[in-house]
């Protein structure tokens, strides 16, 4: 009887493991979450991101300013580029409840596709999917394009290391002309084959995306929008650098809020961050090592968020994907410090916006001091240390499903 019970338990455990490691099941979970969030958000007040996105297209059709504050429509202002009017157009034409749902599905489908392309074994790719699921949910509640920004950065890396320069340039310029963040895909430039061709492809796609909105709206109007976009982004940086903004969840935000000095400038932090970010590139002999390159990817994903004072809670889908990539490429057995940092990040970064986290701690410490950023900052420093001091293997890595 005991033996039979043990065998049943083993079969149940094996079935559960197979289910959790089934990518169709994972995608089904993501789709179910997108459906649940879309239903909930469809009944929210009008001040949600989807309406901001939708009106980028509608305002462009009417040749209205894209970056004014529209109180009656969504009580906020847009900060996405003129090219975004074309990206959002198919969704904006639908009723809001359908537009939101298909917008969510498009974003998560894009991210799922991108992560699946990572040069990792199947089990590790699936682990990345599970690790980022809760942070993905946070981004979905904000109806965030940052889900697609994550996919863009990941695909920029994948396409460059695969030698697909044309498509790498496409996704990098797409992210740049929508939300600027995509420009960080150029961090993988040194891994590119045929670099002059890659540069030409970037110029080509930049010209296409710069001019594309002019085919649907007047050139003079779009040129004015580009000017207004630059002005709005500059103003947004100043607004975010405060002690009570919902944004600025960053290195600078932590420093400002812990010190109480709202005027603390960004530049010294960004210059210091760029210096540390660039140091691993001096280790040219390791450029062909896949773990080294994947750690560069993880560093880029995290750096993009922790050194931006536009970062808010839903933006951390970008950084947390970097945390996941860092975690799955660590040598087994895992070092205690790796386990500690990962658990710390999962609890403080991923869970802190949710009801699973103690409300008092969230309201008294995490939000006021931008502590959601802290674990990602520590992990990013650990990645930089690893990239600078570790001796990576110079022979090609053989992938398995382990």
Summary keywords:
17 helices, 402 residues, mainly alpha, two-stranded antiparallel sheet
Largest sheet descriptor: 2 strands, antiparallel
Helix content: 55-70%
Shape, per Cα inertia axes:
globular
Low-pLDDT windows of residues: none
With strands numbered from the N-terminus, the spatial order across the biggest sheet is 1-2
* Structural class based on helices, strands and sheet pairing: mainly alpha
Report the β-strand fraction as a percent range.
under 5%
Question: Count of DSSP E strands?
Answer: 2
| Rg, nearest Å | 22 Å
SSE topology string: HHHEEHHHHHHHHHHHHHH
Whole-Å distance between the termini?
34 Å
Number of alpha- plus pi-helical segments: 17
Keywords: Cell membrane, Glycosyltransferase, Membrane, Transferase, Transmembrane, Transmembrane helix
Protein name: Glycosyltransferase family 87 protein
Membrane topology: Multi-pass membrane protein
EC number: 2.4.-.-
Summarize the structure in words.
- By secondary structure, the protein is an all-alpha fold.
- The protein folds into two domains: 22-240, no CATH class; 244-392, no CATH class.
- It is 67% helix and 1% strand.
- It is built from 17 helices and two strands.
- The chain has a two-stranded antiparallel sheet.
- The chain is globular and about 75 Å long.
Write the layout of secondary structure elements.
Elements: H1 2-20, H2 23-42, H3 49-61, E1 69-70, E2 76-77, H4 84-92, H5 96-116, H6 122-141, H7 146-161, H8 165-179, H9 195-216, H10 219-240, H11 251-259, H12 267-278, H13 290-306, H14 316-328, H15 336-351, H16 359-366, H17 374-389
Antiparallel strand pairs: 1-2
Helix pairs in contact: 2-5, 2-6, 3-4, 4-5, 5-6, 5-7, 6-14, 6-15, 7-8, 7-14, 8-9, 9-10, 13-14, 13-17, 14-15, 14-17, 15-17
């Amino acid at each position: 009887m005991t033996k039979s019970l043990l065998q049943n338990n083993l079969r149940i455990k094996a079935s559960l493991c197979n289910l959790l490691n089934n990518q169709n099941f994972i995608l089904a979970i993501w789709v179910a979450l997108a459906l649940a969030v879309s239903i909930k958000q469809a009944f929210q007040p009008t001040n949600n991101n989807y309406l901001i996105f939708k009106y980028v297209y509608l305002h462009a059709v009417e040749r209205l300013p894209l970056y004014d504050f529209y109180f009656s429509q969504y009580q906020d202002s847009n900060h996405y580029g003129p090219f975004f009017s074309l990206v959002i157009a198919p969704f904006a034409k639908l009723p809001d409840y359908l537009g939101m749902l298909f917008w969510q599905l498009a974003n998560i489908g894009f991210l799922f596709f991108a992560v699946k392309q990572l040069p990792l074994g199947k089990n590790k790719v699936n682990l990345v999917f599970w690790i980022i699921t809760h942070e993905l949910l946070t981004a979905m509640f904000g109806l965030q394009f940052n889900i697609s920004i994550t996919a863009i950065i990941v695909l920029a890396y994948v396409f460059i290391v695969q030698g697909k320069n044309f498509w790498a340039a496409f996704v990098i310029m797409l992210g740049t002309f929508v939300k600027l963040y995509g420009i960080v895909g150029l961090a993988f430039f040194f891994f590119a084959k045929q670099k002059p061709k890659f540069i030409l492809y970037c110029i080509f796609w930049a010209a296409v995306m710069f001019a594309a909105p002019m085919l649907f709206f007047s050139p003079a109007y779009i040129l004015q929008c580009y000017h207004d976009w630059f002005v709005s982004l500059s103003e947004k940086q100043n607004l975010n650098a405060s002690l009570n903004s919902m944004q600025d969840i960053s290195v600078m935000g932590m420093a400002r809020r812990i010190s109480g000095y709202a005027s603390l400038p960004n530049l010294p932090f960004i210059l210091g961050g760029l210096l540390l970010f660039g140091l691993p590139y001096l280790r040219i002999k390791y450029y062909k090592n896949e773990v080294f390159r994947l750690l560069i990817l993880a560093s880029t994903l995290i750096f993009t968020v922790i050194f931006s004072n536009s970062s808010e809670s839903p933006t951390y889908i970008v950084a947390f994907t970097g945390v996941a990539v860092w975690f799955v490429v660590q040598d087994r057995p895992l070092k205690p410090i790796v386990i500690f940092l990962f658990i710390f990040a999962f609890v403080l970064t991923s869970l802190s916006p949710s009801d699973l986290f103690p409300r008092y701690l969230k309201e008294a410490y995490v939000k006021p001091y931008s502590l959601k950023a802290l674990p990602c900052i520590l992990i990013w420093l650990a990645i930089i240390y690893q990239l600078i001091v570790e001796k990576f293997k110079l022979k090609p890595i053989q992938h398995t499903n382990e």
